[in-house]
From TrEMBL:
Chief localization: other
The encoding gene: Kifc3
UniProt keyword annotations, A-Z: ATP-binding, Cell junction, Coiled coil, Cytoplasm, Cytoplasmic vesicle, Cytoskeleton, Membrane, Microtubule, Motor protein, Nucleotide-binding, Phosphoprotein
Bilayer topology term: Peripheral membrane protein
Lineage, opening ranks: Eukaryota, Metazoa, Chordata, Craniata, Vertebrata
Organism: Aegithalos caudatus
Origin: domain of life: Eukaryota
Compartments in which it is found: Cell junction, Adherens junction; Cytoplasm, Cytoskeleton, Microtubule organizing center, Centrosome; Cytoplasmic vesicle membrane
Matching SUPFAM superfamilies: P-loop containing nucleoside triphosphate hydrolases
Name of the featured protein: Kinesin-like protein
Recorded family membership: Belongs to the TRAFAC class myosin-kinesin ATPase superfamily. Kinesin family.
Amino acid sequence: VMASMAHLQKEKLRLQEELLELQEKLAAQENNELSLSLQLQGQVETLKEKLLEQAQEINRLRSELGGTDAEKHRDLLAAENERLRQEMKACEGELQELRELQRQQQAPCRDCPHLQENAGLQEQLSQLQREAEETRAKLVELDLEVQQKTNRLAEVELRLKDSLAERAEEEERLSRRLRDSQETIASLKSQPQQIKYIIKTVEVESAKAKQALCETQSRNQYLQEQVGMQKQVLKEMEQQLQRSQKTEAQLRAQIMMYESELERAHGQMLEEMQAMEEEKNRAIEEAFSRAQVEMKAVHENLAGVRTNLLTLQPALRTLTHDYNNLKRQVRDFPQLLQETLRSARAEISQAIEEVHSTNRELLRKYRRELQLRKKCHNELVRLKGNIRVFGRVRPITKEDGEGPEAANAVTFDADDDAVLYLLHKGKQVSFELDKVFPPQASQEEVFQEVQALVTSCIDGYNVCIFAYGQTGAGKTYTMEGTAANPGINQRALQLLFSEVRGKAADWDYTITVSAAEIYNEALRDLLGKEPQEKLEIKLCPDGSGQLYVPGLTELRVQSVEDINKVFEFGHIKRVTECTNLNEHSSRSHALLIVTVRGLDRSTGLRTTGKLNLVDLAGSERVGRSGAEGSRLREAQHINKSLSALGDVIYALRSRQGHVPFRNSKLTYLLQDSLSGDSKTLMMVQVSPAEKNTSETLCSLKFAERVRSVELGPVSRKAELGSWPSQEHLEGDSPGSAAPPGRGHASPSPGQLSSRSASIRRKLQTSG
Ligand code: ADP
Ligand code: ADP
Ligand code: MG
């Protein structure tokens, strides 16, 4: 028994050792599992890193995937992704619930380290799954890992089964032994008490072993339960895994779909891009063709322009050439100009010099010519006669009355304007003067004949113009005229003014006028302050032999207005008396003395010309006027002075050595203007009226007497030589009706009779 007891003890110890061994094995297994989980954790870490990298890669790719349409697609995908994520989150929630359930299931075996490990693993797994869901690319790997883990779990199970089998064997063995032992015990029972006791102790001891066995068995059962539970959990987990794989597959399919969509979108995009590219190409082509056409046009233009340019180039060249030439010329111009100016100046000065000399020469010639002209003029005037006698017949006026007394007694020769016929006492007497103005002759016409005389006054000649005739014959009319129809006085002055103005360039002229009258042989100043004062005619004290009248007013006139004033002034002072012959009969001689003084600025030559315009007193005979007393004395004075004038003119024309200027105040005063180169015009005024014929006859006789001696020295001599015989031949027939003849110098026999008639007339008048 003891031995068996010892053996049992030993057995028990061995069993204990085996238990310990088993426990150790379990611990080792647990350790193994821990290391496995650690390894898994490390793998999870690496996976996480890779995931991060992938995410980064995706981000990078996303950032790379630019473009408008692609971006839109990307955004759409992102939205879809978000939606999927949310779905995944929902899945996660479900998973969480499942896990919660699991945890509740696991709660009873919380103390088991395997379970804890499993829970941790599951958590990691869920994490992995979550991450795997987020990252479709790494799911396969995760799958693989899961597969590995399942494999390992299977291994663990296998091992667990092995250990269970071993334990079953052990139990079998133990139960066999127990049976053996029981048999032994039964055999022993039949043996003594001691043995019984031993058996009992052994039995007790075996009970203890039995209890331990029971415990071990219960524990084993528990473990088995655990393993079963584990298996269930694993199954669930596998299911979950399957589900998640399914979801993953779904997700993958979705992803694939998205990818395909993306691809499609990409394709579309590409297509669009291609279309756009094509369009672009087309547009480019179009633009190109258009541009080519335009280019062609431009080329053509260019060609035109080029040809233009080609044609323009020579022009430009010539232009530039011209321009350069011009520039050069312009540059040289000042010098050239100066040179030209210098030469021009020299030329000009030379020309001026030449002109000067020519001028001097011309001046010399001009002076010579002037002298010559003067000489010629003098000669001409001398030939023509310095003294000319004109006749003027006034028209019949109202004053002449009516009836036979007012009949016209004067007729004219149509062919000869120097002849007039007077019907006197039934006989026609012819008179020949230098010119005869008929009644219709105008003031203008009369002045036309006079104006040459007036002009010569400017040249420095003295001129006398007398109006002679009976009162009322038109003396005043001829000399002064009317306001509307001015006479010689005003016209002469006007002419002088205009002539002087015309010569103003070379000459300085001053024109002065004096007005005087001689009444009863007394000279009176008509412009003076004291008109009653009698003026004396005196010789110039300078010994020049010139006469002058001290105290005679001389007024400078410059315009027609001035002259008019002078005339007006003179008129007021003029003494006029009424006779029974004519209301306006003037009994005094009226003189207008115009002095023209000239200075030739270029030569310094001085000239002085005097124009004496004399309105003589009436020439009617005293007996006829019926005057008495003072009137008679007046008439006598007038007759005396008029005959003295006739004498002087006669003496002058016949070039007698002695001219009786002193016989009257008038001739004495006009001595300068009657002698020498002076020119005298006697305007004999006659009335055509029948009643005036005797006075007319007297006036015409006077005129002819004055005129008839106008002859050159030779002819004059000849005439003078033949004077006595002519006188003798035709002594008693005055005013014969013989035709007038004027050719004095011609000795032709045809003209001899006319000359003898002229001489006859002369003899009559002088006689
Ligand atoms: P006188 O001065 O000789 O005495 P007037 O000159 O006073 O004469 O003339 C007398 C009148 O005759 C005036 O009324 C004048 O107007 C007029 N008379 C003189 N001559 C002419 C003429 N040629 N034409 C017109 N009327 C004239
Ligand atoms: P004077 O000037 O010297 O005083 P005038 O010439 O007046 O002299 O002459 C005086 C007078 O003598 C005048 O009446 C004039 O007619 C007259 N007489 C002078 N010389 C002659 C002459 N040669 N023949 C005629 N009469 C003369
Ligand atoms: Mg009169």
